[in-house]
Write a structure and sequence with these properties.
With 131 residues, the protein is of the alpha+beta class. The protein has one domain: Nucleoside Triphosphate Pyrophosphohydrolase (Alpha-Beta Complex), CATH 3.90.79. The chain contains two helices and seven strands; from the N terminus they run ββββαβββα. The protein starts with a strand and ends with a helix. The model has no long low-confidence stretch (mean pLDDT 95).
């Protein structure tokens, strides 16, 4: 089995809503929804990768907290080990620098969106009220 690609993502809450981002149409899994984040580069920690990705993708600075959940998912084209961290926007307002769209949704609205398959277990836990 190929080595998993390490991915760090952010669970960012604003009151009772959390941020989701829509992948660009031209990328793999285009137009599916996901948490902001990306690949962990060699020599980076998960939180460092997350700070960099949020700056690149949203133009914001985040402070990274505890791990919410970890999942491993096999896509047809890659194996992903996703670590979702609690995070908060420390500076800036999210901008669509790379994503097709950005939304703030409540856990009850999760079924209204089509998410990347790797996120399904995480979303179930959020809907169940996990923290």
């Amino acid at each position: 089995m190929a080595k998993a690609t390490e991915v760090a993502a952010a669970l960012i809450w604003d009151g009772d809503r959390f941020m989701i981002c829509q992948r660009p149409a031209h990328k793999a899994r285009g137009l599916l929804w996901e948490f902001v984040g990306g690949k962990v580069e060699p020599g980076e920690t998960g939180p460092e990768a997350l700070v960099r990705e949020c700056r690149e993708e949203l133009g914001v600075t985040v402070s990274v907290g505890e791990v919410f959940m970890e999942v491993t998912h096999a896509y047809p084209d890659l194996l992903v080990h996703l670590t979702l961290f609690h995070a908060a926007i420390a500076q800036g307002t999210p901008q669509k620098l790379e994503h097709n769209d950005i939304r703030w949704i409540t856990p009850a609205e999760i079924p209204d969106y089509e998410f990347c398959p790797a996120d399904r277990d995480i979303l179930r836990r959020i809907m169940a009220g996990g923290t």
